[in-house]
Amino acid sequence: MKKRMKSLIPQALGACVLASAASSQAFLENSSFYLVPSVGYHYTDEMDHFDKYQKKHEATVKDIEFDDGPIYGISFGFQTNAYTAIEFAYNYSNFDIVANDNGGEKKRETSYHYVHVDALYYFSDIYENSFSFYIPVGLGWAKNDPDRKSDDPKELKGIEDTVFNFGVGVQYMFGEHFGLRGDIRGLYGFSQENFDAIAQVGVVFRFGVPMPMGMAADDGIKSADIRFKLNSTEVVNPNDPDILALVDAVKNNPNANIKILAYSDRSGNTNYNMKLSQRRADSLKNILVNNYGVDPDRVYTKAFGDQDGMSRSRHAVAIVEY
Fold this sequence. Notes:
Elements: H1 2-20, H2 24-29, E1 32-43, H3 51-57, E2 61-66, E3 69-79, E4 84-101, E5 104-122, E6 131-146, E7 159-173, E8 178-189, E9 195-206, E10 216-218, E11 221-227, H4 241-251, E12 257-263, H5 270-291, E13 299-305, E14 315-321
Parallel strand pairs: 12-13
Antiparallel strand pairs: 1-3, 1-9, 2-4, 3-4, 4-5, 5-6, 6-7, 7-8, 8-9, 10-11, 11-14, 12-14
């Protein structure tokens, strides 16, 4: 079982890293940073953390038993696109342990430090949907650092290990910048061959959201990428300078029209996505007509849903055509 585990770990980690290597366009349009402080509980593989060390060094401490305990963490992540992220994380635990030390049982403590890099895959567009399941997969360095009772070279010392983690989690965003998440992970130590588990809950602080493509001009054609609020047809900023530029371009040229192309992500069914993108196109048209006085006959809309491989989470492209 452990041999099979070792062969599957590199494959799983590699697959998740490849999924996080998004295309350059998705990288620029759908990236954001976030911070997640967390707290949880660490379930230990009691007997395996120090077994190999004891056998190798003939340590004076025998029959170690771990108590489970709380774990604290901090993660800094980069959302590479709407479905994948890369995280740099640190976790800390402090356990009570009972050890048979030269014939007598004694209590002591050990500190557990785990520094790791994780790849996360979300099952739905996290910018379009407030709720999403995700899978974390990661690899890092861990150290168990027990209190020492003497300077005896055979006394129990700190153990370092390479640790693979994997699990499943859920995330819920209350808005663009704040949310909660929780996950359960298994931790496998390669050299000690121990298998721990942690369950943790964290607060998500997101520092950015996908940036719009902005205005571009080419052969008399101007375009803008307009963002909508999370899981909504409401435009984030009805006074967006890009919208004002579109209005000016149309009003200054009687032969110009505005074409609105609206898209949806692929998290829902095709019929729902098509209707959502049409409502977003209509919403943007209403702003141009009602707020800025653009003639409705000069604004055309087309809904694409999740078609054409041009999924633009929470976006509609408005083009001025001459």
